[in-house]
Design a protein that fits this description.
The structure is a single chain. This protein is α+β, with helices and mostly antiparallel strands. 32% of the residues lie in helices and 23% in strands. The protein contains 14 helices and 19 strands. The chain has a six-stranded antiparallel beta barrel. It has a five-stranded parallel beta sheet with strand order 6-2-1-10-19, with helices on one face. Strand 14 and strand 15 form a beta hairpin. The longest helix is centred in the C-terminal third of the chain and has 17 residues, at 393-409. It is elongated, with a radius of gyration of 25 Å. It starts with a strand and ends with a helix. The structure holds flavin-adenine dinucleotide (FAD). Residues 6-12, 29-32, 37-39, 41-43, 47-48, 130-131, 162-164, 167-168, 172-174, 176, 353-354, 381-382, 392-395, 398 line the site of flavin-adenine dinucleotide.
Length: 412
């Protein structure tokens, strides 16, 4: 059985290793000068390789269509992935939130383990080999092979497309797989950047550029409907907001609001109820009766916010604390618990960790990853209409679907 794989990312490499171990003659085609360029930069260079949570939780972190993944994940779950890397000589460790990393903190060790396993299994890796076209027998609806950019044709019995999404194009993910899929008769669902920062309308955001806030609560509302609420860390930037809390929020936003304008509310003191916060503010006011308002609130916020908060609460920052009215205090309280921002959209693919959308899942057999349209054609990884939250789940999708595609393609 001769199998071609397009794409030397995590999904393609896992598919290649699995198929070659099952006895197939496997050629992996990668257009870059090396494999795993995106994998190398994952987890800020540390590679959050999977998540050690139970399977239910794993599915819960997939944004949509998690049922499609049942066969792939039950056949090759996070435990299997961890065992694979341990056996391949790359020791792992589990950190906060069950995130799994190489013990060395170097994604290069994950890459080296994959390279060793490909070599051991006899995978032929062809670098600098960009696939230009997928060759199909249109009468028999059967895969024939591929044509490379240099016009060379390579024939095969089976083909796995593992070309990734279109985020961070410089890593090689240029969306070729979507074109191949369409040319083979597949539908590609609407694409969008996900796990991506937000553009924010309010100009004052810029003044807070570089400020990171921990332990805040964010709520996103679209047309008055709450679509996301969570606690965590956020970061102000020159265009809007980023940070883990916002990246997760963006995935809910693109899935549930599809880039429509939305409101983002930040609770700066989520650990305190309205009453507790009021008492705290009164204490500050009592202790600083003759100070200016902006100085009296210095202990409540980071220095960068000291001028912004009075402005947002429409209180003269120079006003003496003992002159602040009850209404002003209530407005101030409301601003702290409901800091309002307007989301105008998300940043582009070059800042997105993942691509939402992809090859339509109803056209793919979830027990094999084979196309229901073209015999011998398989898909794996981010090219599929699947995306998950951060925490190692996106790579788990790549490992599980890659493993299943490789295993099924190698079957006689
Ligand atoms: P890719 O990794 O994109 O690989 C596709 C490969 O196909 C590329 O090497 C490309 O060059 C090749 N290719 C494309 N077209 C062709 C063609 N025509 N011919 C030949 N080759 C082609 N996920 C996690 O779970 N944990 C993390 O810590 C994490 N961190 C991330 C950090 C960043 C900055 C980014 C951008 C993503 C991160 N992700 C993380 C997401 C994760 O990297 C992806 O989900 C994963 O790489 C998808 O794997 P893939 O094999 O499907 O595609």
């Amino acid at each position: 059985m001769k199998i071609l794989i397009i794409g030397g990312g995590p999904a393609g490499m896992m598919a290649a290793i699995t198929a070659a171990k099952a006895g197939a003659d496997v050629v992996l085609l990668e257009k870059n000068e090396k494999t795993g360029k995106k994998l190398f930069i994952t987890g800020k260079g540390r590679c959050n390789v999977t998540n050690a949570c139970d399977t239910e939780n794993l599915f819960a972190n997939v944004m949509e269509h998690s049922k499609f993944l049942y066969s792939a994940v039950y056949g090759y779950d996070n435990q299997a992935v961890m065992q694979f890397f341990e056996d391949a000589g790359c020791h792992l460790k589990t950190e906060r939130g069950q995130r799994v990393f190489p013990e060395s903190d170097h994604s290069s060790d994950i890459l080296r383990a994959l390279d060793r396993e490909m070599q051991k299994a006899g995978v032929k890796v062809r670098l600098n080999s960009e696939v230009e076209e997928v060759l199909i027998d249109n009468e028999k609806k059967q895969i024939l092979g591929v044509r490379l950019h240099n016009r060379e044709k390579i024939m095969a019995d089976r083909l796995i497309i593992a070309t990734g999404g279109i985020s961070y194009v410089l890593t090689g993910s240029t969306g070729d797989g979507y074109r191949f899929a369409r040319e083979a008769g597949h539908s590609v669902t609407k694409l969008s950047p996900a796990l991506v920062p937000f553009n924010i309308e309010e100009d004052w955001c810029k003044q807070l550029q570089g400020l990171s806030l921990r332990n805040v609560e964010a709520t996103i509302e679209v047309e008055g409907r709450n679509i996301y609420s969570d606690f965590g860390e956020m970061l102000f930037t020159h265009y809007g907001v980023s940070g883990p809390l916002m990246l997760s929020g963006s995935s809910y936003y693109v899935h549930k609001a599809g880039n429509r304008p939305a409101k983002l509310y930040i609770d700066l003191k989520p650990a305190l109820t309205q009453e507790q916060l009021d008492k705290r503010i009164l204490r500050e006011f009592d202790a600083n009766r003759n100070k200016q308002f902006k100085n009296a609130i210095a202990t409540l916020f980071p220095a960068k916010m000291q001028n912004i908060m009075p402005m947002l609460a429409q209180i003269d920052p120079e006003k003496k604390v003992n002159e602040i009215t009850k209404e002003e205090r209530e407005r101030f309280l409301h601003t702290i618990k409901h800091l309002e921002l307007t989301i105008t959209g998300v940043r582009d693919y070059n800042e997105a960790i993942i691509t939402k959308g992809g090859v339509k899942l109803s056209e793919i057999n979830p027990s094999t990853m084979e196309s229901k349209i073209i015999k011998g054609l398989y898909f794996a990884g981010e090219v599929l209409d699947l995306d998950a939250l951060t925490g190692g789940y996106n790579l788990q999708i790549a490992w599980s679907t890659g493993h299943l595609a490789g295993e099924s393609a190698a079957e006689e």
